[in-house]
Input
Amino acid sequence: MRSTKLSLVLRQLRDGGPRSRARLATDLGLTRSSASALVGELEELGLVRAAGVERGGLGRPGTAVELDGHRVCGIGAEINVNHVATMALDLAGDVVAEHRAPIDSTRLAVSAVLDLLAELVEQTDADVRAGGGQTVGCVVGVAGLLDRTHEVLTVGPNLGWKDVPVGAELRGRLGAAYPVTIENEANLAAVAEAVPGDASRQDILVIFGEVGMGGGIVAGGRLLRGHQGYAGEFGHMIVEPGGRRCGCGRVGCWETVAALRPLLDAAADPDDPIRDPALALDERLAEINRRADLGDNRTLAALDQVGSWVGIGAAMLTNALNPAAIVLSGYFAEIGHHMRPAIQEQLLAGVLAPQGGGTRVEFSTLGFTAAVRGGATEALESVFDDPTTVAPRPDVLLGGAR
Amino acid sequence: MRSTKLSLVLRQLRDGGPRSRARLATDLGLTRSSASALVGELEELGLVRAAGVERGGLGRPGTAVELDGHRVCGIGAEINVNHVATMALDLAGDVVAEHRAPIDSTRLAVSAVLDLLAELVEQTDADVRAGGGQTVGCVVGVAGLLDRTHEVLTVGPNLGWKDVPVGAELRGRLGAAYPVTIENEANLAAVAEAVPGDASRQDILVIFGEVGMGGGIVAGGRLLRGHQGYAGEFGHMIVEPGGRRCGCGRVGCWETVAALRPLLDAAADPDDPIRDPALALDERLAEINRRADLGDNRTLAALDQVGSWVGIGAAMLTNALNPAAIVLSGYFAEIGHHMRPAIQEQLLAGVLAPQGGGTRVEFSTLGFTAAVRGGATEALESVFDDPTTVAPRPDVLLGGAR
DNA sequence: CTACTTTGTGCGACGTCACAACAAACGGGG
DNA sequence: CCCCGTTTGTTGTGACGTCGCACAAAGTAG
Output
């Protein structure tokens, strides 16, 4: 009962930025006294703090209140083919710590990868504590299919994993005081793109492309997980019946025509350096951008062709979901601007609703940190759900009633 | 604050059925005294009533409390190509009134259709009042694309309507004391399929097929509308690039291969009576069932072929949404059982998640009343959101404090 | 018939919120 | 320079809702 009101105030501060107690009261339909009391309580918990004066013309200026980051942090973690990574985000959304270790998951044993990630998480938690904060939770993004309980990785084709109870394994290694949960990596990336408070980012579709394709759906600001947690597996929607064979064994999957490989296949001969997996990915993508900027016909044609396929798939999803925006992430973020015309064209052509249902095409700016950022955001959600769960400020405990 | 608790109790009774005050308290984490007070208040509002004793073994038997339907009703209405219809549902979900009028929307003027529907709604409201109830709202389902404000029908291809502010028009005709809102017809059908309390029906995908195809998505028990309200337009997802031309002008739309016409095209010659639009639809569908039951090869092949296409589209949506069930409605409900093997096969083949993500294929049993039923359900939602909005029982007003 | 269990209600204590009053802080005008 | 209006933030007071507890009611088991 009390926690719901505190939650309301906290979310309002996150979504709408700092403001005075009086404005908070009018915005939430409370009295100034109630708002003041709630803010006071949040202040005691160390979740908000004063943020300078707010001159608003006439009358006494208010003292703005803002989220106080440094007390609590959420940790996001990621297990991917090439690396494991973590990130700690404070309540205000600022990065407090970040760790990253390259791996070769296909050669490393499962337990070794989990060991390494656990080490990174503990290091991150240590960083948080060193900054005087407490960790409220850790959400781990895994590249693969996670069962609804979010505890067991059913299949991780790219990782080469199968039936790994990632949640339990990690909890065993950490002995952490905070909850550890598991989520699909692309779903977490979607969470990261849905910035709180931005109304145009509460119904979005995130499409991630690289070796494979995945994605996530945010509807009404909340991640859509589906009945067993398998939602967002866009890469294996069959968009071209009778088309190319996919690594998954099916034929005509979206990722056979819109992931990185089909682009490279169309853009370059087998001996072209941009198709050399030994080279760094961003180098190869930069080269594609260079060629496109120079007007190379084959490159442009390839981008156009793949862009069309991206648009066709995006149109199908838009017909079903009518998102406010489609956020393209992964390799699309780097070279997608060259695909934009083709994507837009197919989207407008393939969506029944007038003007494509008003869906905008955007490109992610989060880079490879999207998943860990989304994980940390998701972990922090528990604080916004119930602010009373965080331990009170030590000085308040000592001070007592004065 | 108070209304939220009342809302909780009311929903609990709806979702879990009648039960004693004590069980209500334990289920909701309240004390027995609080539960008793809340039930008392709901009783005064006329929303719940006693429902016999509940023998539970040891101790004093409890007196069960159940939803009391007859006080408040929601009205669902529908504007379709061949008919307009209404239905009043009471709080318990029982049908209180039902009206239906066949029309030919292509020949009738827009205003005439609206006049007729308004008349039906008023008649339905009169029925509700005659039964001693009050109407709490009316939700109108329209076959076409509705803009997010849910006020203007942007395009209704089958109706032949364009840019009609259905909501405002209807309100003007009704001068109703209750709110009137507009929703896509197939979306309302989806609401009707998502039976409250049934956990396996809170994440579902409803696919409606007849002349065209549409549908709706229910995620976490709530209708997914999308940013502008255009969600659920499955019929025009392009499943066969370069395929057949669709009535909408595009090529390869799902409804060109999975709606009623492609089935008839494959199953019968042009002069076959089952392709005669003059015959009643259920007659023609019954004939298809007869032939399939008799083992007619051409019919079975057609059902198999169309079923495969249904499964291909369903698989795409299942990859994206991972619903607990796909509910097939419209003509699928009548003859879909003959398509089930083909649908299941494509669904298992086309969905990445193991065992097709656990998604079941089901057929609607609601017939053509799905949309009106969903509309009435949606209208009643306002009562569950805030039970205090309903007018108190007249006898309570008269009785006063005793 | 007694012991025990469970249900439903009545009553006092406590916490929370709304309303009102008041002090504080600032701009503007004479 | 001072007074006034305006807005902010805090402090009290009363109303209301919820919890905990006790008690009567109504059944079962032995």
